[in-house]
Write a structure and sequence with these properties.
Layout: H1 22-30, H2 36-51, H3 56-73, H4 76-92, H5 96-112, H6 116-132, H7 136-153, H8 156-172, H9 176-193, H10 196-212, H11 216-233, H12 236-252, H13 256-273, H14 276-292, H15 296-313, H16 316-332, H17 336-352, H18 356-372, H19 376-393, H20 396-412, H21 416-432, H22 435-476, H23 480-525, H24 528-537, E1 543-556, H25 558-564, H26 567-588, E2 591-596, E3 599-604, H27 613-637, E4 644-659, E5 665-669, H28 671-681, E6 688-691, H29 692-704, E7 712-722, E8 726-735
Parallel strand pairs: 4-6
Antiparallel strand pairs: 1-3, 1-4, 2-3, 4-5, 6-8, 7-8
Helix pairs in contact: 1-2, 2-3, 2-4, 3-4, 4-5, 5-6, 6-7, 6-8, 7-8, 8-9, 8-10, 9-10, 10-11, 10-12, 11-12, 12-13, 12-14, 13-14, 14-15, 14-16, 15-16, 16-17, 16-18, 17-18, 18-19, 18-20, 19-20, 20-21, 22-23, 26-27
Length: 736
């Protein structure tokens, strides 16, 4: 997927302000009787504000003139500003290698001027170009150098931009949780300084990150928020980028007419603003739409045009995606050998620039083509590699694609069991991508309940009015016979009304009972705070929670146990153990997340953050270990088979929210979850294995207060190799 990730240019040249009327600025610049400083300000504003985003080649020309005069007059500040404008003129045109050269020259000039703000901005610009070229590690080094300078100088605007660019880099590497964290930090700073342009840019990229995770509802919300800002700012170039991204959303929903409308609106604006990279992205979107509708010639033409623009710009990442999609056209036409050739060229570039999501796409596509050619062994190897990488990225949509590839490959060789396994995983992941539908269903249910309750209230009021009216009639009746008849009639009506009123009240009671049952069921599925948010707002936003503690358990010997026990006995043992775990978690304020087979997952510090989650989780874990130990001793005494438990714990940030349409659930995602799982698998039976992060929180809590709770003792295990994580510091913990 080729996303329109906005590259934010740091406006270093904004150090010099001025008018934006090109004619008057040119008149000032041409008047050699004026002072050099006045002419330098005029020519800078002419280049930057007058031409940079409309005629970047003209901007470069006037920036050259600014540089010549700055060198003649010895004005080193304007020399750095001119070099920055020249770099920006190449960046606007998508000519990243030339832009990089000039940004390095700008940094050298800022260093000679001893200008920390300028140095930080230049490092940020260098990082943004390296990121756009797919050189992520080099880019991260430049960003970190920039942030170090900015935190000391308290230059908030450039700090916000650097955090934004670090979010983009994390997105491009497939680390979506980290990307959202950087973006949130960037928006927080931008709100403090009132930078609406910057807020809009970051909202656009937040939409891209949600999009890549398959969370289309939140993606569309972010894009539409960004559009409101761009319309208010009259920023047509950035608006074009967001329109293209919205087109992607509609294309994923197979609304091609709507998607093409947004792509063409984006293409028109990009051509008006001479935004070559934007033109490439819009062509890419139109090509993808044509491909999905099987209009192959049009698709190939759009992708070829996009590739030519990317090659001219030296944009490796987008070159790879264009190559991949030309391959996809051939694959759809059943020309798989030709398709593999393009996929291999794409994969080579993506591995060179460490583009994880691109690698997954290419591996899956190559796997499918090899499968179609009958090379199932090669197909399985590539699809398994793709799934492993998608799981590492915690990207639902990519996992779904890899599982589909494996399902089809295993089906081809007649391995029904493995095919069914990956088909079920693919279906579950597909459900997770439709989480927004769950919220809409709950909204409809709540509306129906309100309608029913309102109807009962109206009926009850009618009966009360009727009874009052009948009593007034009775008082006014003078005739004895009429009064008696009226009295009898009133009794009859009152009895009927009373019966109806009782019926209404019983109905209301039944409705309340059902409502209570529904709420109890909802609270069994969701945390109380999340359930309340659903009832009050009709929706529940995903949350980025900065600090939680995640706990995993897994049973050793469970597989062997399943071989000697009946299914009923096995499930009873598991139920008894998990029920005990549930009670322990409730006691310590820990949220149960889910069970997966014989594994159990929980987390402290959510959905409402707290400062004791590490202690709470460790106390709960130690009790859980004790429950299993006691159960083991009892089984040994009875001569029955038993299982043992490993428990792992890690603390850090997670994203939490609701997933699923059927059997939906509250879940958490992020590297913290993966690391907690590695703590469990790297532990030992009967022991609680914790990470350095959790260890530090426990030590800090003990230092902060003598009454912080039970004291723990730790066994430093040193650095232990963990799958996919390298070596991690680990500790065994127990009560003192």
């Amino acid at each position: 997927m080729k996303n329109a990730l906005t590259v934010l240019i740091i406006l270093l040249a904004a150090r010099v302000s001025g008018n934006v009327n090109p004619d008057s600025l040119y008149a000032v610049w041409s008047n050699e009787s004026l002072s050099d400083s006045t002419r330098l300000k005029a020519v800078h504003n002419l280049a930057w504000h007058g031409y940079l985003f409309s005629k970047p080649d003209s901007a470069f020309y006037f920036a050259q003139k600014q540089l010549e005069l700055a060198e003649l007059s010895g004005n080193n500040t304007h020399k750095a500003v001119a070099l920055n404008t020249m770099g920006a003129s190449f960046q606007v045109r998508g000519q990243y290698k030339n832009a990089l050269e000039y940004y390095h020259l700008t940094y050298q000039a800022d260093s000679l001027n001893n200008d920390p703000r300028g140095m930080a901005g230049s490092l940020n610009n260098i990082g943004s170009i390296l990121s756009a070229l797919g050189k992520y590690e080099d880019a991260l080094t430049q960003y970190e150098r920039s942030v170090s300078i900015l935190r000391e100088s308290e230059e908030m605007k450039t700090l916000a931009s650097t955090l934004h660019n670090m979010g983009m880099l994390s997105h491009n590497r497939g680390d979506y949780t980290q990307a959202l964290e950087y973006y949130a930090q960037s928006i927080e700073v931008k709100e403090q300084i009132g930078d609406n342009q910057g807020i809009a840019t970051t909202l656009n990229n937040i939409g891209n990150t949600y999009n890549s995770r398959g969370d289309y509802i939140n993606a569309l919300r972010s894009f539409r928020k960004a559009l409101r800002y761009y319309d208010a700012l009259n920023d047509m170039s950035s608006k074009a980028t967001t329109l293209n991204n919205i087109g992607n959303i509609f294309r994923y929903q197979k609304d091609y007419e709507k998607a093409n409308e947004y792509y063409n609106r984006s293409l028109y604006l990009c051509r008006e603003t001479q935004d070559q990279r934007g033109i490439s992205l819009a062509l890419y979107g139109l090509g993808s739409s044509a491909l999905e509708q099987k209009i192959f010639n049009a698709a190939r033409e759009y992708f070829q045009q996009s590739l030519e623009i990317d090659e001219a710009a030296g944009d490796l990442r987008n070159m790879a995606y264009s190559l991949h999609n030309i391959g996809s056209v051939y694959a759809e036409e059943k020309m798989h050998q030709e398709a593999i050739g393009f996929f291999e060229r794409s994969l080579e570039i993506q591995r060179e620039i460490s583009d994880k999501k691109g690698v997954v796409n290419s591996l899956v596509s190559m796997g499918k083509s090899h499968s179609a050619l009958g090379d199932i062994k090669q197909a399985l190897r590539q699809c398994h590699d793709a799934l492993a990488l998608a799981e590492e990225m915690d990207a639902i949509s990519f996992q779904k694609d890899a599982c589909e590839c494996l399902y089809r490959s295993y089906r081809e060789i007649g391995n029904s069991a493995r095919a069914l396994l990956y088909f079920e995983r693919q279906s579950t992941l597909s459900d997770s991508l439709q989480a927004g539908e769950t919220i809409r269903q709950l909204e409809r249910m709540e509306f129906a309940n309100r309608q029913l309750a309102d109807s009962l209230m109206r009926e009850e009021e009618k009966l009360r009015v009727e009874l009052v009216h009948q009593r007034e009639v009775s008082k006014q009746t003078q005739n004895r016979n009429i009064a008696i008849a009226s009295g009898i009639f009133m009794l009859f009506l009152a009895g009927a009304a009373f019966n109806r009123l009782q019926y209404v009240r019983r109905s209301k009671a039944a409705l309340q009972k059902e409502k209570d049952r529904s709420e109890e069921l909802l609270l069994n599925i969701l945390p109380e705070e999340t359930a309340e948010e659903l009832k009050e707002k009709g929706s529940a936003e995903a949350q980025l929670i900065d600090s939680v503690t995640v706990l995993f358990t897994d049973f050793k010997g469970f597989t062997q146990l399943s071989e000697v026990l009946t299914p009923k006995e096995l499930v009873k043992d598991l139920h008894d153990c998990f029920s005990a775990f549930d009670h322990i978690l409730e006691k310590h304020g820990i949220e149960k997340i889910k069970t997966i087979g014989d594994a159990y997952m929980a987390a402290g510090g959510l959905p409402t953050p707290n400062t004791t989650h590490a202690q709470d989780a460790v106390n709960a874990a130690l009790e859980m270990a004790e429950v299993v130990r006691v159960g083991k001793m009892r089984k040994i005494e009875q001569g029955l088979p038993f299982f043992e438990v490993r428990i792992g714990i890690h603390s850090g940030p997670v994203v939490a929210g609701i997933v699923g349409v059927k059997k939906f659930q509250y879940d958490i995602w992020g590297d913290t979850v993966n690391t907690a799982s590695r703590m469990e698998s790297s532990g030992e039976v009967g022991k609680v294995n914790i990470s350095q992060s959790t260890y530090e929180r426990l030590k800090d809590a003990a230092s902060a207060s003598r009454n912080a709770g039970p004291e723990f003792t730790f066994v430093n295990r040193g650095k232990i190799a963990a799958k996919g994580k390298g070596e991690i510091m680990m500790y065994f913990v127990q009560l003192k």
